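ok trying again, last paste got cut off:
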Amino acid sequence: MLYGIAAATAALLFTAALSALLRMFALRLGVVERRRVRPVPLLGGVAVVVGTAFVAGIGDWTDVAPLGPEAERVLMAAIGVAVLGLAGDLWAVPLAVRVAGVVGAAALTVPYDELGLPAGVLAVAWIVLVVHAFDSLDHADGVMGTVGVITAFALSGCAAAELMDGLAALLSVLAAALTGFLMHGWPPARIVPGRCGALFAGFVLASAVVLVQAGREVGPGLGGGFALTAVASADAVLVLVSRRRAGRPPLRSAPDHLVHRLRRVGLTRQGAVVVIGVAAFAGVVVGLLIDLGWVGAGVAWWVAGAVALVAVVGAVRPVPRPRRPYPIPSPGARGEAAHGCGAPRPPYRPERPRPRAPGGLMGAGRG
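nice, full thing came through this time. structure:
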């Protein structure tokens, strides 16, 4: 108990400090991503990976909290996936290469002795889908980190209930590291995780779901696993369905994710992240209750219905194009001094330059 508190605190503080340090290096090296017409550093995922691996590795090396063979394989495979994601942040790595890397890492972590070969192959495919769904969540500030923290905390409880102490310790450290990252990644973010952090967190969480649910019956296992990753699944299904219906390429980036739709309803950036966090919390609570056996697996159908409703409503309702904001004039030029203290300001419209005449006064003196 004391080690868990100490490890979580160390992971949180270490990741927060490392994120601030890597932010300075990323700005100097130009490793940035443009979000909302501003450059944001991309190396936040490195801080999450290093913070999680360092704290969990110290506990395993000192035998205070040994990870065990399953959690060690998950951590090592996740580090390999994170390196592939970092390469994708720095260079143009094709999607096929990233998918192949995640498939190879997932194939090393799936427990075939408990699932069997056919179910193990399906588990590998499911891990690949969930990992890239978490990668897709990293399109707005704070979304992936918030969903990752909530899911990791719930999964650590599921693992502890299944007496998988090493996996529970790894998930607790990951949740603390993501929390430390969110100290800098909460909107407006000063650093973002990039593919490195998104693939790492998604792989650890998806592999943990498979390991926790492997020894259970088919119904509770599938229902609990789906509920634990409901928000990432809903966002991925919504994007694929809406882009297919609009005739757009499914892999081309566009502002049609769940958080973008919430923003266009009128929520602020922070409010949209909070709403998505509440939805993720509701999903993981259902998954945790199913895993503990307090509710039946049929409750997961309600979560599936909610995901389908989000996909259908989002596909039917078109996504309006975001309006380009006009620059706000300075108070001295167009402020209260010109229009009265209580009078509303008129909408600012930039003046169009008048065309120069070929001759006469406008053209005189330019030979």
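cool. The first helix runs from residue 2 to 29. The chain has 17 helices and two strands.
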